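INTERNAL AUDIT FORM
Audit reference: QA-55
Scope: verify that the stored structure record matches its stored sequence.
Auditor: D.O.
Record contents follow.
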Amino acid sequence: MIADTDTRTRILVTARDMFHSRSYADVGIQEICTGARVQKGSFYHFFPSKRDLALAVIDDMADEWAHGFVAESFDQNLPPVERLEYMIDAAYYWQKASSDIEGRMPGCLFGNLALEMSTRDDVMRAKLNAVFDKAKNKFRAALDEAVQTGDLAAMDTEATATAMLAYLEGIILLAKTRNDPDVILTLGPAIKTLRIELKH
């Protein structure tokens, strides 16, 4: 059982790294098997197809994302506005670390897959949308609290949280295009100025 778990984990980690650094379409099953040091039979024991593996990779990365820097950024012990600042810093250091190791920015795995697959696979699109919704809800909770404490004026927190998530993903995409994580550090603080007014 432990060996099975280890094999599945190796496949997941290998595929995640390959999908993230390159693309879903560019990576084949045989290449994943070679990288993970497993036979194709072992691959198909855990994943009926590359698509099933990609869905598992999204779940795995989303879990790590949620319990990693997203949880740290939106720590309830931080004042709500500081959580937004921390999120930008966390995104920067995440991308900077990858850039220092690989020599290029990988961008956001979820954003990369969304750009590549959203018009081609409705199931994958729905799964990615669920990940983005969870992130958006973190922004909204921070905004709701900031409005309640008077740190921010009343606003449409649902729409503003969505705009903040879109802005964050956008600057990560721009930073990836320029291969420069400093773009996140330069443009990131403006996220706090985003505000969608309540409709009356």
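Auditor finding: record pair retrieved intact. Residues 156 and 198 are 5 Å apart (CA to CA).
Action required: none
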